[in-house]
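Data deposition worksheet. Section B asks for the primary sequence of the deposited chain exactly as it was used as input, without tags or linkers unless they were present during the calculation. Section C holds the resulting structure in token form. Section D is free text for depositor observations; keep each observation to a single sentence. Incomplete worksheets are returned to the depositor.
Section A, Depositor: J.P.
Section B:
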Amino acid sequence: MVGAHPRTSCRWSFKELEILTVPSEYIYSLMSFFIGNQEKFQSNSSVHNINTRNKHHFHRLVANLSCFQKGASYSGIRILNSLPQSITNLKNEKTHFKVAFKKFLNAHSFYSVDEFFTCTDDTYY
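Section C:
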């Protein structure tokens, strides 16, 4: 499609063509669901009255089973809580959030969900 060598990484091609990788598409669709249904989930401030820096994060239930931790609700809350602050501030404005988040995912072209969690660069273009 872009004339690259078969052994060349496609990361830059994804960025240039603004195509989301499969893990990025999974993360984007999961966040679209959570932003559309955020009233169904509790924040940390609604669970306890302690004034912490993460009081606006969504509350994750304590789970010991790996099948529950790999599920959509637990993973979605974990992803949403680890988003950069600049994007998290837009969670009440659904269209702005989706645009900013898609730009963030396009700028990084994640090849795995674990790579998303290890990303420290919170800029998007």
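Section D:
Residues 18 and 112 are 17 Å apart (CA to CA).
The two ends are 24 Å apart (CA to CA).
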